[in-house]
Amino acid sequence: QEEKKQLTLKVEELERKLETTSAQNIEFLQVIAKREESIHQCQLRLEEKTRDCSSLARQLEMAIEDAKKQVEQTRERAISRERAAQSKLLDLETQLSRNKAELNQLRRSKDDAERRYESRLQDLRDRLEQSESTNRSMQNYVHFLKASYDNVF
């Protein structure tokens, strides 16, 4: 009778451990999902900045073409318009330079985030594998205890 009680307590304890491990697995999966969403958001921002840079490059090319056409016109108009175009060109180059720097920073941040994510993901995978192995061991042990219990009684 005492042995039966001990086995029952042992089974209950192992089942509680199994539930705890399963809850941890769910938490790990949620963390992975959040990391993946974070990387996805970084990727979206990177794509947006890439589009911005392309647009600014096109605007810069158009501004240069405008400046060339204006130079061909009368001298007074050419000088006035060239100054405006040069100012606009300088602003666009400055903005393009800032956006390129920001794009490079975002790429570095994305690469860094991916490295951290991959490291964390591998760690979580390792922990998940270890947890699953522990679960299997506990399930086998519970099965063994139940079988032993059935054989005893």
Task: Report the strand count.
Answer: 0
What is the distance, rounded to the nearest whole angstrom, between the alpha carbons of the first and last residues? 10 Å
Structural classification: mainly alpha
CATH 4th-level superfamily: Helix Hairpins
Portion in strands: under 5%
Second CATH tier, the architecture: Orthogonal Bundle
Report the total helices.
2
How many domains make up the coordinates? 1
What is the CATH topology assignment? Helix Hairpins
* Proportion in helices: over 70%
Rounded mean pLDDT is 91
CATH class term: Mainly Alpha
Order of secondary-structure elements: HH
Most strands sheet:
none
Sum up the overall morphology in one term: rod-shaped
Instruction: List low-confidence stretches.
Output: none
Q: Round the Cα radius of gyration to an integer and report it.
A: 33 Å
Description:
By secondary structure, the protein is mainly alpha-helical. It has one domain: Helix Hairpins. It is 97% helix and 0% strand. It has 2 helices and no strands. Helix 1 runs antiparallel to helix 2. The radius of gyration is 33 Å and the shape is rod-shaped. The model has no long low-confidence stretch (mean pLDDT 91).
Secondary-structure blueprint of this entry?
Blueprint: H1 2-72, H2 75-152
Helix pairs in contact: 1-2
Protein name: Outer dense fiber protein 2
GO cellular component, one term: centrosome
Family: Belongs to the ODF2 family.
Key terms:
mainly alpha; Helix Hairpins; 0% strand; rod-shaped; cytoplasm
Can you give me a brief rundown of this structure?
The chain is mostly helical and 153 residues long. The protein is built from 2 helices and no strands. The protein has one domain: Helix Hairpins (Orthogonal Bundle).
